[in-house]
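re: the backbone from monday

yeah here it is again, tokenized this time
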């Protein structure tokens, strides 16, 4: 557990340019506080002291706004950036060196028993507000765009975007016309509106041409 905590702190230093010192990280990073309290709660959970484990996790939720079930399995170097609103379910599994932003849910889709939450591989990034729902795997080095809703497996080295999420990049190459970063994410509603506007402009142009042609016919008939 101590080794994991050390790696968690190093992960913050490596990934957040605003982090100036270990002391600052320990005192001010709510994401790290939640992960540290999870590590303790998970130890109690593994000893089958479930009530103590849940009490610690609920205290962490009260203090940080982040809810991590003590039954979740989280690897080393886990970093929750900004933190608030993150929910991680009981049967979630997270590999090493994963990055999660605020508002992320790693949850289930129903009340079935057994494995019901996602499994994240190593080096996975989940953008702000994303929802990953169900007992499937998100492969190593995958990226989930902000506000995406992922309902099925994401292969390794892929980028998923949209609602529901679809793969737009694989091994660094585009597999669709969409591009991706944390800010410039295509909005399917806006795209559909643009298509309709283009169509309307074409129809208006065609109507105008027909009106001009009709006026020309009338002038010819008068002559």
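seq for it, each position gets an aa:
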């Amino acid at each position: 557990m101590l080794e994991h905590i050390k790696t968690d702190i190093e992960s913050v230093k490596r990934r957040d340019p605003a982090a100036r010192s270990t002391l600052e990280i320990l005192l001010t990073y709510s994401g790290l506080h939640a992960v540290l309290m999870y590590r303790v709660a998970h130890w109690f959970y593994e000893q089958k002291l479930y009530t103590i484990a849940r009490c610690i996790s609920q205290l962490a939720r009260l203090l940080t706004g982040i809810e991590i079930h003590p039954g979740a399995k989280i690897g080393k170097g886990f970093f929750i950036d900004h933190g608030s609103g993150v929910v991680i379910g009981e049967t979630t599994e997270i590999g090493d060196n994963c990055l999660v932003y605020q508002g992320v849910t790693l949850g289930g889709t129903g009340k079935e028993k057994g494995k019901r939450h996602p499994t994240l591989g190593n080096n996975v990034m989940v953008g702000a507000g994303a929802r990953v729902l169900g007992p499937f795997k998100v492969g190593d080095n995958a990226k989930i765009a902000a506000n995406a809703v992922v309902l099925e497996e994401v292969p390794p080295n892929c980028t998923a975007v949209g609602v529901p999420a679809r793969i737009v990049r694989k091994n660094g190459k585009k597999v669709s016309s969409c591009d991706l970063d944390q800010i410039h994410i295509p909005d399917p509603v806006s795209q559909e509106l643009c298509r309709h506007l283009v169509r309307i402009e074409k129809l208006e142009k065609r109507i105008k041409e027909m009106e001009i042609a009709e006026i020309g016919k009338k002038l010819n008939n008068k002559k």
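The first helix runs from residue 2 to 15. The chain has five helices and 16 strands.
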